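Justification of resources, computational component.

The compute hours requested in this renewal are based largely on the per-chain cost of generating structure records like the one below. Each record pairs the submitted sequence with a full structure-token output. That output is archived, and it is also reused by downstream analysis tasks.
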Amino acid sequence: MTYLMSMGIEASTAFAIMETVRKKNKFLKDTQIEVMRSHNVPQYYIDSCNKIEYLFPKGHAVAYCMMAVRVGYFKVYYPLEFYATFFTVRSEQYDIEALVGGEAAIIAKIDELRAKSRIKGEKLSNKEDDILKTLQVALEMVQRGYKFTNIDLNRSEAVRFVVDKENKALIPPFSTVDGLGGHNAESVIEERNKRAFSSIEDLLSRTHLTGTNVGDLKRLGVLKDLPESDQMSLFDF
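The structure output for this chain reads:
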């Protein structure tokens, strides 16, 4: 565009020619070629415009480079914040047991998924592929000296990973539990802010968690400090 403008072609026409070449939707129009020839644009230049498959704009390239510098900066100087943002925004599927299990558990799950696709020749499902991507970044994080704590009934958020600087860790959200959606997770936060849960029975009655959700949380040890019921027993006295 800037070259064509320097040759005296009107700005809007130069822009239209650039867009035709950049997107490669079609060849240059005859009228565009006539304009270029009338302004003494060399024939080799016109021929090149019809051969080019795609052009990457300078502004786009600069934006990518600036983003790479920003990502690199936060990854080096604010690692926990970087990973918390990554797992919250970019990850779609999780294996919470592998994450909480630490480096060995993460590696074991990665090897399991890779063996399925490479050794057994089975195609990974979209869900498994997303889990593999999450675990690869998680492995990088733990190998840098950080970790994932278990889900915390009192500190975990619905869908956002929480930074725990004191323990150099990330606290996973409730939504990392398979089948526990954002709506159900949000209900836990809303009720927790009103008052603490007194029992598993209380948790079930006040939130949108299903019996399966609660069973998974119990299996993970998230509810180990909650009694099953508020009902008192004679043996408590």
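The chain has four domains: 2-55, 56-84, 91-136, 149-232. The radius of gyration is 28 Å.
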